[in-house]
Amino acid sequence: MEQLSQLLLAFIVFLSLYLLGSSSLTGCIKIVALQGMCLGLLPLTIHSLGFHPRALLLAAGMFILKGFVIPRVLLYAIREVKIRREMEPMIGYTLSLLFGAILIGVSFVLAERLPVPPGLRTNLLIPVSLATVMMGMLMMISRIKAVTQVIGYLVFENGIYLFGLAISYEIPWLIEMGVLLDVFVAVFVMGIIINHIALAFDSISTEKLTRLSD
Fold this sequence. Notes:
Layout: H1 2-20, H2 25-45, H3 53-81, H4 93-113, H5 118-121, H6 125-142, H7 146-167, H8 173-201
Helix pairs in contact: 1-2, 1-4, 1-6, 2-3, 2-7, 3-8, 4-6, 6-7, 7-8
């Protein structure tokens, strides 16, 4: 189980890096859905959680919500506004990949300096969670399309969820379910906002919103 959890964590950080270099909105949504499925499986591979009923229910909730429900909402949004690619990001894709690789290195350095239990120092959970948070933030600030900014937010939240798994052996049940609900509501609202942006400006680029004046 330990080896499986390490493989899942390595795959999760790879997916985050892949997102930074992808311009296809449909591809990005599918990748973040795959990352959500990995997050759903992860609690079952951690020894302290195992197949505890709470872990099973949390895993099922994460798998369904992040792997299927939220991606479908986002796919519907881009289908309605007929936008397929992020053509002119604020930070280019090659440079984004370079920054992402640097952030992964920084996350390992930070993980070594954090006051965590000795057992977690040999685990990828802390560095992967930090890297995922930072790459999600990078995606939010470096992209123009509202959809890709939502995807960046989802990656950011995935990193926070991973960090929560790292520091808490006992699942804070209500808090975790609250996070899932908050994410769903946030993406649902963003879907509505994206549609309104598209109707008003014939585009989902948030850059045009900065040109508004009183």
